[in-house]
Every structure is written in structure tokens, then in C-alpha cells.
Amino acid sequence: MAVATTLDSYLSNKACHYDLVEHPFSESAAKAGMSAALPLTKVVKVVVVNHHNHYLMVAIPAMNRLMLPQVESMVGSHLSLTHEKELDALF
Predict the structure, then answer these.
(1) Burial class (CB in 10 A: 0-12, 13-18, 19+), 40
(2) DSSP string of 13-77?
(3) Domain 5-90, what architecture?
(4) For residue 70, what pLDDT is reported?
(5) Distance of alpha carbon 9 from alpha carbon 79, whole angstroms
(6) H/E segment holding residue 81
């Protein structure tokens, strides 16, 4: 398991401590957290959004749903969720 370089850099610059925890493959961050015996308040998931044909990764607590209007106000632009079928080509 790896963390994206830009996410690692951002978290390091904000003095955020995190640990990478190995776990078996799972379909969701919540299931990964449960299999690693972690509370969901301590697990992060990434949601990929489309910003004018560029992709952004939004890291949020695994127990939360993405509040797209709030993220749009932070970015200052319209965003849309990336469809799962697009993710294979991205990763």
C-alpha cells in the first residue's frame, strides 16, 4: 500500500501524523478499517472528483460522505464525481 506523493507532502506540511496499515483487499475504506481493527474515525478514504477534465483526490474520514458543495466552495469551481469505470484508466 502506498500514499500519493502529493498527499504525503500536504500532510507533512500540515504536521499531520499518519500511519500506513496493511490490510487484505476490500471494496471500501470502511471494510478495510474493520479488517485492520481500526475505528472508522481513524481511517481515511479517497474520493476522486473531476475538475474541468482534471482529476482531484479528496481525502476524507472513511465514515463520512463527500459533501461536494463544500469541496466546490473550497476549490472555487464546479466539480463532479468520477465514475468508477473511469478509475481503472486513472490508476
Answers:
(1) middle
(2) HTT-----------SSHHHHHHHTT--GGG-EEEEEEEETTEEEEEEEETTSPP-HHHHHHHHTS
(3) Alpha-Beta Complex (3.90)
(4) 95
(5) 23
(6) strand 80-81
Report yes or no: 50 and 16 within 8 Å, Cβ to Cβ.
no
pLDDT band at 3 (very low <50, low <70, confident <90, very high): low
DSSP 80: E
State pTM to two decimals. Answer: 0.72
CB-CB contact of 42 with 20 (8 Å) = no
What is the rounded distance in angstroms from the CA atom of residue 29 to the CA atom of residue 46? 8
What are the grid coordinates assigned to 68, written together? Answer: 461536494
Domain layout of the chain by residue ranges:
5-90
What pLDDT score was predicted for residue 81? 94
Cell digits of residue 41: 474515525
Rounded average pLDDT over 78-88: 90
